[in-house]
C-alpha cells in the first residue's frame, strides 16, 4: 500500500450520493499501466456532447429513465417504515485486533455492526477480522444500536480522533438523508448520503427543518472513508440478512486467500450516451487493469450482449448505463430505451466477477428493496465490492479512483481519494 500523501481535492457534486458497498480490499499489485490519462475531456469528445449546467465536462448525467415503472422512495416514506424512536446511541467495543504483519501495517479500520444482527454473524465476522489482521490492518469491532445520524457521526469523529482511517458499516445503522435541486433541467432529489459520515468537520445544515440536510459548507473534503454491507432490503432469494452476510464473508475469505478464481482483467461497458468518451474512460480503468475489454458500439451495447459478457470472467466490471435501483436501460438507436436487464436476471446469471464500478443512476440506492448494487455484491458465488450512487449522477474523474487503486490502496482509500 502506498503511504503517499492523499489527494485532498474537494469532492464535486456527484460524490455526495456515492456509496461504497464493502471496502477493505486491495487488488493484486503490479497492474498499474504505463500510460497517462488526460485531465480534461478530449476536444473530439467535447465537441460531440451536450453541455449540462452542473457538469463542466459536458458529460450526460446518468439518469433514472422515464420508462422506469418505479420512482424513488421519499424520505417521508422511508421514515414511515422506521421505529418511532431509535433510542439513544449505544455502542460496545467487542475486540481489537492488532496487525499480524507489522512490517506491512496498513491502516486502522473500525467494523461497526448492528447490535441485534451481531449474534447471528459472530463466527463469520471473526474470520473477516482475522483476514484483515493477516493483511496488516489494525481492526476494531464495535456493535451499535439506536442513535440519530448526528450521534453516529460524532461517534465516528471520536474514533477518527483515536486514529481510525475508515469504517465498514454492517447491517441497519443510522442513515443521513440529503436533498437538493440539481442538473439542467432541474431535478429535486432526496437520497441517503454516506458522505455525511466521511466529512466529519464540515458544516451540514437542514435549513428548512424537514429532517433532510440541504446545505454542506465549510471544510468539505472527507476525513475518513465509509463502506457498508446492507443486506436487509435483499429479499429476492428468500435468504435472511444473516445468511447473505455469512455467504458474503465466505466469498470474501476465498477471494483474499486466492481461492476465488477471477481473471486479471476488466470489462468497461459503455452505453450510447457516453460512447464517444469510452476509450478515455477505459484508459483510466487502465491505471489499475492493463488487460481490459472496452465495449461501446451503440449497436452492440444491449442487454443480451451485456449479459453474455459479464459471464466471461472479469475481475472488475464497469457498467455505464442509465438505470434505476432495479434495472439497467440500454439505448437502441435512435431513441429506444426499452432494452433492459433487471436485478433478478443478474442474480440468476451470478456473474463470475468480484468488483464493480456502477456508473448507473441510483443503482446503489440501498433504501430500495432488492437494490441492484447490493445484489452485485451479495450474488451467490462471486461479488465482493461495488461502488455506485444513491442518486442521479455517478463517478467522474475516474483517474482519482483507479490511480490509487492500481498503486495498492484499498477500495476504501481509493474512494476517499
Can you give a write-up of this model?
By secondary structure, this protein is of the alpha/beta class. The chain has two domains: 13-71 and 262-416, Rossmann fold; 75-226, no CATH class. It has 13 helices and 18 strands. A six-stranded mixed sheet has the order 1-18-17-13-11-12, sandwiched between helices. Strand 14 (322-324) and strand 15 form a beta hairpin. The model is unreliable at 1-16 and 28-54 (pLDDT under 50).
Quickly describe the structure:
25% of the residues lie in helices and 23% in strands. With 417 residues, the chain is α/β, with parallel strands linked by helices. Strands 1-18-17-13-11-12 form a six-stranded mixed sheet, with helices on both faces. Strands 2-4-3-5-10 form a five-stranded mixed sheet, sandwiched between helices.
Amino acid at each position: 500500500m502506498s503511504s503517499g500523501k492523499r489527494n485532498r481535492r474537494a469532492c464535486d457534486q456527484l460524490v455526495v450520493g456515492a456509496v461504497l458497498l464493502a471496502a477493505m480490499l486491495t487488488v493484486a499489485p503490479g497492474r498499474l499501466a504505463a500510460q497517462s490519462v488526460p485531465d480534461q475531456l478530449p476536444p473530439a469528445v467535447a465537441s460531440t456532447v451536450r453541455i449540462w449546467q452542473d457538469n463542466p465536462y459536458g458529460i450526460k448525467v446518468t439518469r433514472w429513465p422515464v420508462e422506469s415503472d418505479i420512482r424513488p422512495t421519499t424520505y417521508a416514506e422511508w421514515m414511515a417504515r422506521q421505529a418511532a424512536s431509535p433510542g439513544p446511541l449505544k455502542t460496545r467495543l467487542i475486540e481489537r485486533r492488532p496487525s499480524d504483519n507489522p512490517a506491512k501495517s496498513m491502516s486502522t479500520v473500525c467494523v461497526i455492526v448492528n447490535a441485534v444482527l451481531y449474534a447471528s454473524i459472530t463466527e463469520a465476522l471473526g474470520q473477516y477480522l482475522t483476514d484483515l489482521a493477516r493483511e496488516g490492518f489494525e481492526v476494531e469491532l464495535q456493535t451499535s444500536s439506536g442513535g440519530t445520524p448526528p450521534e453516529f457521526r460524532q461517534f465516528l469523529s471520536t474514533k477518527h480522533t483515536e486514529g481510525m482511517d475508515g469504517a465498514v458499516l454492517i447491517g441497519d445503522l443510522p442513515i443521513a438523508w440529503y436533498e437538493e435541486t440539481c442538473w439542467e433541467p432541474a431535478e429535486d432529489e432526496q437520497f441517503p448520503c454516506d458522505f455525511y459520515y466521511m466529512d466529519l468537520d464540515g458544516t451540514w445544515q437542514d435549513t428548512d427543518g424537514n429532517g433532510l440536510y440541504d446545505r454542506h459548507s465549510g471544510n468539505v473534503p472527507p476525513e475518513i472513508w465509509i463502506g457498508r454491507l446492507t443486506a436487509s432490503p435483499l429479499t429476492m432469494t428468500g435468504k435472511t440478512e444473516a445468511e447473505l452476510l455469512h455467504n458474503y464473508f465466505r466469498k470474501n475469505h476465498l477471494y483474499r486467500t486466492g481461492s476465488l478464481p477471477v481473471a486479471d482483467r476488466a470489462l468497461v461497458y459503455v452505453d450510447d450516451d457516453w460512447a464517444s468518451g469510452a476509450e478515455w474512460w477505459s484508459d483510466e480503468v487502465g491505471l489499475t487493469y492493463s488487460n481490459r475489454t472496452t465495449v461501446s458500439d451503440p449497436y452492440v451495447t444491449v442487454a443480451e450482449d451485456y449479459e453474455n459478457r459479464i459471464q466471461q470472467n472479469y475481475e472488475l466490471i464497469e457498467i455505464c448505463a442509465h438505470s434505476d435501483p432495479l434495472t439497467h436501460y440500454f439505448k437502441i438507436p435512435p431513441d429506444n430505451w426499452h432494452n433492459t436487464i433487471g436485478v433478478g436476471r443478474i442474480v440468476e446469471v451470478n456473474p463470475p466477477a468480484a468488483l464493480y464500478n456502477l456508473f448507473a443512476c441510483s443503482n446503489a440506492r440501498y433504501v430500495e428493496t432488492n437494490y441492484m448494487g447490493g445484489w452485485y455484491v451479495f450474488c451467490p458465488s462471486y461479488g465482493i465490492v461495488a461502488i455506485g450512487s444513491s442518486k442521479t449522477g455517478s463517478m467522474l474523474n475516474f483517474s482519482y479512483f483507479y490511480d490509487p487503486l492500481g498503486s495498492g490502496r484499498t477500495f476504501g482509500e481509493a474512494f476517499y481519494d
